[in-house]
Write a structure and sequence with these properties.
The strands form five sheets. Strands 1-2-7-8-9-10-11 form a seven-stranded mixed sheet. Strands 12-13-14-15-16-17 form a six-stranded mixed sheet, with no helix packed on it. Strands 18, 19, 20, 21, 22 and 23 form a six-stranded mixed sheet that branches. The chain has helices at 57-68, 83-86, 89-95, 105-115, 187-199, 203-213, 233-244, 263-277, 293-302, 319-331, 350-361, 378-397, and strands spanning 5-8, 11-13, 16-18, 23-24, 28-29, 34-36, 39-42, 46-49, 75-77, 100-103, 120-123, 129-131, 136-141, 151-155, 160-162, 220-222, 228-229, 250-257, 283-287, 303-313, 316-317, 337-344, 370-373. It is of the alpha/beta class. The structure holds MU-OXO-diiron (FEO). MU-OXO-diiron is lined by residues 80, 82, 84-85, 146-147, 165, 224-225.
Length: 398
């Protein structure tokens, strides 16, 4: 039998852990799994906040029943309908047919599209309230803090914010659910990887949401993924503020490269050595054929320096390097201290594409980019060393 945890007052955790799925959104590796968080408020009226991914509905219903103890659910608040949270809406409606679904206009547009089902609806607008008895819920829209219909629910009685994806992270809740009960060492990197890959494109909407929420007195944040935040709220909000402004957290250099036969990799190693010789300790190297792009993107969010290398491949960039550039572009990453290098066998094309990329990103290029033919020689060695030295000098000054 499942046990449930009380969060505060009448609020209970009824979420589930997913240790089965290999890739979130069928793209992003989640070696530490993910939790789909859902919450019950047991007042005169009972409200459920969000649901879980459909594969876990049986376990989910058992958890809910444990808390309900024979009562029914009056309201289902849909803060975010993406199927990792909205997936069990139909099953909840089937189990509690009189339930009223609470959402905004965009929620119901999507609800109709996903489920085409008849149900009681309560359409709320910005700042509307719903009283459950003692607990008063207030609703604030947070469009594009991942999807357009996203809203957050503030329990003004208990000062608890149900924040949808905001402040979430990959990683299951292994026993404890509160930040105070969990060893968070691994969480911060996973949280950045989650943010930068899933929400990273939406920096401006996140800034708007942070500004809107700054007026609320918040003691607990209940996200749809990861720990319940209490004592670490200032740290978590601070990280979201930094990340959504595209500000690096630390001085350091990411070197991401593609290499078929080791020649471009030799350039990467040489540049890395030069950066190190010039006093930089934070150097992270990624072979794009080995590292999943989500880890590279996360490191690009973290550090202020970025050097990308590629061989010329069919007169283009190495395809996995091009895919990385596309991901950076889509997310609109702001200025990084940037440079590049490349190699070719008979006709070089990398500089043209890297320069075009830098212009599109409105990034300045540091040092003199290097392009070599076939393999390293003394002249190219010196150019790689100079590029590394220029990068080291620059990142220390910004
Ligand atoms: Fe966790 Fe945007 O869904």
């Amino acid at each position: 039998m499942y046990t449930s945890k009380r969060i505060k007052g009448d609020i209970y955790y009824v979420g589930v852990n997913d240790r089965k799925t290999e890739r979130f959104e069928n793209m992003w590796p989640i070696p530490r799994g993910v939790s789909y968080n859902s919450y019950l408020i047991m007042d005169e009226k009972v409200a459920l906040i969000d649901t879980v991914e459909i594969s876990f509905v049986e376990q989910y219903l058992k958890k809910i029943e444990t808390v309900l103890k024979g009562r029914s659910i009056d309201y289902l608040v849909v803060d975010h309908i993406e199927p990792d949270h909205g997936g069990s809406i139909r099953m909840i409606k089937n189990r509690f047919p009189d339930i009223t679904i609470v959402g905004n206009k965009k929620t119901f547009d999507m609800l109709d599209g996903f489920f085409s089902m008849e149900c009681n609806k309560l359409e709320i607008k910005e700042g509307d309230s719903l009283t459950l008895g003692k607990n008063e819920l207030q609703f604030y829209t947070a469009p594009m803090v991942h999807w357009p219909e996203v809203m957050v629910t503030y329990n003004a009685t208990e000062k608890v914010l149900f924040s949808a994806d905001a402040f979430g992270t990959w990683g299951t809740l292994d026993g404890g659910i509160f930040d105070t009960d969990i060893n968070l060492d691994h969480i911060w990197d996973e949280m950045r990887r989650y943010y930068s890959n899933i929400v990273g494109k939406y920096g401006n909407p996140v800034q708007k949401a942070l500004s809107k929420l700054s007026g609320l007195d918040i003691e607990v944040i209940c996200s749809t993924h990861g720990p319940i935040w209490t004592t670490d709220i200032p740290k978590v909000v601070g990280k979201y503020d930094t990340w959504s402004k595209y500000e690096p957290e630390e001085s350091g250099v990411v070197i991401a490269y593609g290499s078929m036969y080791g020649n471009t990799e030799e350039m990467a190693e040489t540049i890395a050595n030069a950066i190190s010789e010039n006093g930089v300790k934070n150097i992270v190297m990624h072979d794009v054929s080995k590292s999943h792009a989500s880890y590279i993107i996360s490191d690009i969010w973290k550090y202020n320096g970025l050097i990308i290398g590629s061989p010329t491949y069919s007169n283009q960039l190495f395809p996995l390097v091009q895919a990385l550039l596309d991901k950076i572009k889509i997310r609109g990453v702001k200025q990084r201290v940037f440079s590049y290098f490349g190699s070719y066998a008979w006709s070089g094309a990398t500089h043209k594409y890297f320069q075009q990329f830098a212009e599109e990103m409105k990034w300045d290029v540091v040092g003199i980019p290097v392009e070599e033919k076939l393999r390293m020689n003394d002249e190219k060695l010196q150019e790689c060393l100079s590029l590394g030295a220029a990068m080291a000098e620059k990142i220390k000054s910004v």
